[in-house]
Amino acid sequence: MEKSVFGPVPSRRLGFSLGVDLIPRKHCSFDCIYCQVGRTTHKEVERRSFSDPYLVVKEVMARLKEGGRIDFISFSGSGEPTLSADLGRIIGEVKGRTKIPVAVITNGSLLFMEDVRKEVGLADLVLPSLDATGEGVFELINRPHHTLSFDLLVRGLKAFRKAYKGSIWLEIMLINSINDSMEHMRIFKELITGVAADKVQLNTVTRPPVDSAAVGLDEGRLSSITRFFGRKCEVIQAFAGKEARRPDRRQWTASVVETLKRRFLSLDDVVLTTGVSRAAAKAGLDRLIREGRIRLVEVNRERFYTARPDEGNSC
Q: Dihedral sign, CA of 304, 308, 309, 313?
């Protein structure tokens, strides 16, 4: 049976994040050109139950009992979490059993729905994304379900902000020669004001994207845009942290493979996540490559690991 819980993952935004994935790969309302999980195979907007809420909560609590550093329990993974009709119920059950804060990472596409706003609003922190400045760029970057529109996305974000009392960290994924011109920046600035996020986090393509047209910006350009947006804006920095937990070989293998089904990891990511030495991590990853369970890919002269297609992750 496919597990719903993975990690904790070294998150550049959330520290050590224990992932809760309620959506089968790859059900989403978008098919973003920069996605590291792969092409959307089931583009949809209808909410439904994908898993047993009781079993998901049980799995989360079992992982928490194992100990180790966990900064956030984050609802994210291989699809859009708000597609799950059980999202609110599971968040409520988890929050009733632990003091670890809960975050929801969402593309924001379904926030125009009142029930989605109520359920996502149970989280301590919400991290929606906004990658476009108009309908044309929205279609180009996010490749949304045909029932969705840029205006609907923005209206949903504004409606959620009006009702939600927690923190909103708005992520903007910047792509070279697509949404990074000064004209785009001026429109983004107006949109940011309307959404009234507590923090704006600039991101760019750093891991293997689904479409080679998605190319990242350099540090100088990102720094310049940060200054233009003002004090609430920051560039998402590289992860920095230490994890002392050292699982046995079987636990290590299961944890790494489950995570690689959902995202690319570098060797350093694996070291930080699992707490083993660099040499031990490299040896374990080499073993998984020989067994045919994972593969090594390269982007911008950096190496990343991902699960093989038959392990649940293909790009």
A: negative
